[in-house]
Design goal:
The structure holds 2 protein chains of 2 kinds. The longest helix of chain A has 28 residues. Chain A starts with 15 loop residues before the first helix and ends with a helix. In chain A, strands 3-5-1-12-9-10-11 form a 7-stranded mixed beta sheet, with helices on both faces. By secondary structure, chain A is of the alpha+beta class. Chain A contains 20 helices and 28 strands. Chain B is an alpha+beta fold. Chain B has 2 domains: about 80 residues, Ubiquitin-like (UB roll) (Roll); about 70 residues, Orthogonal Bundle (DNA polymerase, domain 1). Chain B has 5 helices and 5 strands, in the order ββαβββαααα. Chain B has a 5-stranded mixed beta sheet, sandwiched between helices. The relative contact order of chain B is 0.15. The mean pLDDT of chain B is about 95. Classes of the chains: A alpha+beta, B alpha+beta. Chains A and B meet through helix 1 and helix 18 of A and helix 2, helix 3, helix 4 and helix 5 of B. Bound molecules: FE2/S2 (inorganic) cluster (2 copies). The site of one FE2/S2 (inorganic) cluster has 11 residues of chain B, from loops.
């Protein structure tokens, strides 16, 4: 058993103390002397031409300091897309400018076209209401199919609503088509991956500050990746030197993707701070969050699965329309393409895969990565069509999957969608699942449900995802405009305590507890002596932040590399102290010793000597003990899992109740089981929310119907069950030093198809010929499907 | 602008507010007690729950002036006198009942109100009581578990480490 605090143990989270006592410091909690308040004026219509904006009444209202409109930012840059996607014909995607404030046209409800800065937030709000804008409403483009065929364009200058028409892998298309044509059996499924609002509980907030003495800007903001935000604002939007912009993301109340991106409000508060010479703050209302946070999913898909007569998979062919909303958010173009298409071979040895994705502009909020980002969409399509196929062929759904699994002796395995899976054991996961889900007891439970007049269904799925985003070499070839490494600095103080500066950002993931476990283990010291520093571009070396289940796999690896450098430097110092050859120094359990002797010095003594180097050989041995490492992964990591759930469906009402849910995951090595389990729970909550409750609805005019917690069904405690979570099936990642794969998104990826499969099983057991229902499986939808 | 006085976490406080100033804004802005959070504008998320005269109240649904003379307790007043975590707070830490921490103050305050009225709630009662508190991070499993543990019940049988 691991010691209480070491890797593999579950020490309590140290960050909890401040959160539990009300002493967290979120962006809106931080007040800066002299601060003014910004309020944004947002479009009420989905699509409109801005004829004029009259600010004359507003600017004389009490407390008003400044008013900005799109014209103020006409000369600065746009917020760019981070990934270039080329269409099948080789042409680059369409990239219309995304301005700080809308100029010329408004393109979705909530699109900001003006901002008021005033002494108080209430004064700013009052003045915002006095701004009179003449906006000529234009027909709204909402439905994706209509967007592609119609002649109303979200961006007139590009003359189409299609951002790109992408094929993966284009060279595989003909072979895939041929395999489907010649197959003994083809299962076809049309489905919608419902649009979701991420809904981190902390609304976005930003405070800009400018110091005229030094010319430095400071931005406090709700970000998952402060360095990326700095880069986007500095290099692309405002054109200020990176070294003059400090971005601080303090405690952040959840992100789930929505806080990866740079948003216009961040640039506005900085520009306003500079103009006014005062700090300017803004905090979104929840309504603004619904209208303007990047949404997730929103795919319309047809998937076909070809098999031979025994159910061996021959080909998957997918056609998807992916909504990108009114503007390209930073990762909007990679999410439906490489994070989706490359996973379309799933856990299977299928020889042919082809994916076509058309990305579509609409007059809706931008859509981007949300927990899972592309991989939930891939898994849902695959695992639903496989389930349908199993029913058509009369093969048990678990057996059908097992028949096509990549087997443990096939790694490294190059999938038909082009990824190289390094490790896994899908049969072992399925074995564990069948045990924990007590599949053998299902028949008796079904009878018991039927006796109560309820239909019981069993649903299963297996998934694989690509995490640890991402090898810069590979993503560069695929169109990424950034590298996706991470960085860490380990600073050993003279008295032996440590500060570890990490590029990952913790907004619930527990880095402040888990990273010290790793460093303490390597150095043989007390984790309590290690402080984690994150979320401040002035205090950490560099970092690409936290998303794509990358913190441990990428930044954790950088932490390991930097700590290894500390040990190497420590050996040099110890060799000097012990008058031994450096090659004879061994380090174990916090002690540097001379091999084959009992001579040694402690880590603390070496640290002290590093800073009090009275007799160091000049030039040969540098004082200090601080090391930085950048880590660029060699490959993605490939977590996988098998999930099962049982539902009861009330045939009278269509209400679905989850009776039990089992998640069995292979995350590679597990550093802190408590935190990993918590991550799975959270993902399950969101995935179950997608499957049963959540939907984002725009009406035909582009009005967001589900813009508050009264209309958007967030999962509450009484909607969800206790979960059974297991991560004992471990195949370590083969290419990173910790052997870890990433656990943050799994629950949200694996759960939606599991639930839909279970509901279909329940309905068919009741003699209802229902083969698919689009999520969310609300009582109304289930009842309608049963009674169609 | 009107003067308002109340007792917050045992301390007499006062301030000058507008009629429209919400209790939550008075606590956060005037008193700098920023542990009470704002997560919505429709009184549904529960991030703002405090106790007013012993009852759990959403501080975003009450004007500061309505709390004139009241006894208010916020998350900052929930620790033991020696500064150690109170029973519910400690159970949340022990059972990993929080991740980002944003919903947490409201959850703790709601849980305290529940356990005052119902010292040994069932799982179903805990879940029903949390109807007005939204958490996006935890999937609720460990929150429910923490509250049941705080009530002195054995939660070892509930799955998970
Ligand atoms: S802020 Fe009070 S309920 Fe959401
Ligand atoms: S812990 Fe993040 S919302 Fe509950």
């Amino acid at each position: 058993m691991p010691k209480d605090s070491n890797v593999g143990a579950s020490p309590k989270r140290r960050e909890d103390i401040r959160f539990l006592t009300g002493r967290g410091k979120y962006t809106d909690d931080i007040q800066i002397a002299g601060q003014a308040h910004a309020v944004f004026v947002r479009s009420q219509v989905a699509h409109g031409a801005i004829r004029s904006i009259d600010t004359s009444a507003a600017k004389d209202m009490p407390g008003v300091l400044a008013i900005f409109t799109g014209a103020d930012f006409a000369d600065v840059g746009g917020n760019p897309a981070g990934w270039l996607i080329n269409s099948r014909d080789g042409t680059p995607m369409k990239e219309p400018k995304r301005p700080v404030l809308a100029h010329g046209k408004v393109r979705h409800v909530g699109d900001a076209y003006a901002a008021v800065i005033a002494e108080t937030a209430d004064q700013a709000r009052d003045a915002a209401e006095a701004i009179v804008a003449d906006i000529e409403e234009l027909p709204a483009v909402v439905n994706m199919a209509q967007a592609l065929s119609g002649s109303t364009y979200v961006h007139d200058e590009i003359g189409t609503n299609q951002c790109f028409d992408w094929g993966w892998i284009e060279d595989n298309r003909a072979a895939t088509d041929a395999a489907i044509k010649g197959a003994a059996h083809v299962t076809t499924l049309d489905l919608v991956n419902n649009r979701l609002v991420p809904n981190a509980m902390e609304p976005r907030a930003s405070t800009g500050d400018y110091d005229p003495g030094t010319g430095e800007y400071t931005l406090h903001t709700t970000s998952q990746n402060p360095h990326l935000t700095r880069l986007l604002i500095a290099a692309f939007v405002l054109g200020i030197p990176e070294n003059k912009l400090r971005v601080i993301a303090p405690d952040v109340g959840g992100g789930f993707g929505s806080k990866i991106y740079h948003y216009g409000e961040e640039a506005l508060v900085l520009a306003a701070a500079r103009r006014l010479g005062r700090p300017v703050r803004w905090t979104a209302s929840r309504s603004e969050s619904f209208l303007t946070d990047a949404h997730g999913r929103d795919h319309v898909t047809r998937i076909e699965l070809a098999t031979d007569k025994d159910g061996h998979f021959l080909a998957f062919r997918t056609e998807t329309m992916a909504n990108v909303g009114a503007y390209l958010s930073n990762f909007a173009t990679v999410t439906p393409t490489f994070l989706h298409g490359t996973l379309m071979a799933g856990n299977y040895t299928v020889p042919h895969v082809y994916v076509n994705v058309k990305a579509v502009f609409t007059n809706t909020a931008p859509v981007d990565a949300y927990r899972g980002a592309g991989r939930p969409e891939a898994t849902f399509s695959l695992e639903r069509v496989i389930d349908k196929c199993a029913r058509e062929l009369g093969i048990d759904p678990i057996e059908l999957r097992r028949r096509n699994f990549v087997k443990p002796d096939q790694y490294p395995f190059t999938s038909a969608a082009g990824l190289q899976y390094d490790s896994g054991n899908y049969d072992a996961l399925m074995d564990k699942l069948e045990e924990l889900a007590d599949r053998n007891g299902f028949a008796a439970r079904r009878s018991a449900s039927e006796a109560k007049g309820l239909l019981r269904g069993f649903g299963v799925n297996s998934y694989i995802e690509a995490c640890g985003i991402a090898p810069s070499n590979l993503v560069g070839i695929l169109g990424a405009r950034v590298g996706l490494y991470d960085a860490a600095t380990v600073r050993v103080n003279a008295t032996g305590s440590l500060a570890v500066m990490v590029g990952a950002h913790s907004h619930g993931q527990g880095h402040e507890t888990v990273f010290p476990q790793i460093v303490a283990d390597m150095l043989g010291i007390d984790p309590a002596s290690i402080e984690i520093v994150h979320g401040d571009t002035a205090r950490i070396p560099f970092g690409m932040g936290t998303y794509g289940s990358r913190s441990l796999a990428v930044c954790g690896s950088a932490v390991v590399r930097a700590t290894e450098k500390i040990i190497a430097k420590g050996k040099k110092i110890a060799a000097h102290m012990l008058e031994a050859a450096e090659g004879d120094i061994e380090f174990a359990e916090g002690r540097f010793g001379v091999a084959g002797t009992d001579k040694g010095v402690s880590f603390g003594e070496v640290a002290f000597k590093a800073y009090v180097p009275h007799n160091f050989p000049h030039e040969a041995l540098e004082p200090g003990l601080e090391e930085t490492a950048f880590y660029d992964p060699a490959n993605f990591t490939y977590p996988s899992g098998a999930y099962a759930c049982e539902v009861e469906v009330d045939p009278e009402t269509g209400k679905v109740t989850i009776d039990r849910f089992v998640a069995v995951d292979d995350f590679g090595n597990v550093m802190n089981p408590m935190v990993v389990t918590g991550q799975v729970h959270g993902g399950l909550g969101q995935g179950i929310g997608q499957a049963l409750l959540e939907n984002t609805t725009y009406d035909a005019n582009g009005q967001l119907i589900t813009a508050s917690y009264m209309d958007y069904a967030m999962p509450r405690a009484d909607d969800l069950p206790f979960y059974t979570v297991d991560h004992s099936c471990v195949t370590p990642c083969t290419h990173n030093p910790l052997g870890v794969k990433g656990c943050g998104e799994a629950g949200a990826i694996g759960s939606p198809p599991t639930i839909v499969n279970a509901v279909i099983d329940a309905l068919q057991s009741g003699g209802k010929p229902v083969t698919h229902i689009d999520m969310p499986l609300s009582p109304a939808r289930v009842w309608a499907a049963m009674n169609a | 602008m009107t003067q308002v006085s109340m007792t917050v976490n045992g301390k007499a406080v006062s301030g000058v507010v507008e009629g429209r100033t919400l209790l939550v804004d008075f606590l956060r802005g005037n008193l700098r007690l920023t542990g009470t959070h704002v997560g919505c504008d429709t009184s549904q998320c529960g991030a703002c729950v405090v106790h007013v005269d012993g009852r759990a109240v959403k501080a975003c649904t009450m004007f500061a002036l309505e709390a004139e003379g009241a006894q208010v307790r916020t998350i900052e007043g929930m620790a033991n006198a020696d500064g150690s975590l109170g029973v519910i707070q400690q159970a949340f830490q022990d059972h990993h009942g929080l991740q980002c921490g944003f919903c947490t103050p409201g959850m703790v305050m709601s849980a305290a109100a529940l356990l005052k009225d119902n010292p040994r709630p069932t799982e179903a009662e805990v879940r029903a009581h949390l109807e007005g508190n939204i958490c996006r991070c935890t999937g609720y499993h460990n929150i429910v578990k923490a509250i049941m543990a705080a009530s002195g019940q054995d939660v070892a049988a509930i799955a998970a480490e």
